[in-house]
Request: fold
Amino acid sequence: MSAASVEQPPFHDDEPFSLTAIADEIMERHPGYRVEIVGGHLLVTPSPDAPHAIVLTDLMIPFLAAGLHGTETRVLQNVGLWLPTGADDYVIPDLVVVDADIKDHLVERGAYDPVCFRLVLEVTSGNWKDDLKTKVAAYAEAKVPVYVVVDRKHQRLHVLTDLDGSEYSSHRVHAPGETVTLPDSIGAEVVLDVARIIEAGRP
Reply:
């Protein structure tokens, strides 16, 4: 999911400046908004539209059918991932495949150690550049093995794999009419129909 601007809350002289405090205040003033901190910057996302939610539900089906929500892995939505890019950095991916023992790896603020994450998936909303640029670098730095982006603006599916240091060395872009087999490192074979995914996400 991508970010949108939101009115910055006023600072109080008697409170120490911190991004986490600002994030908390934004969420309190704007229920339903998602606030993330990446590289010391706030990313604020309004509530998703219905097609965004439909895509996520449709995407869960092949992951569940492959048996990825079981004893070894779990398929989850909106789970926090703690980032190594800054002291307060964290993101809340749209969909993830994680190790089943994720509950044992809580860092803080509802965000978990990235070592638990086998795949992260984002569905773009307004500012697609965050998912295709800012978060690419952040997820690579966190060593997430597979990053998938449903790019609703350009009607494409991006699959980033093969970490080389703190970068993905493989970035494949798929168009409607293609099928995509995700790396078996996520725990099972999952095949995605790009046309069906893109159609489900049309506004």
Summary: The CA atoms of residues 50 and 203 lie 8 Å apart. The longest helix spans residues 50-65.
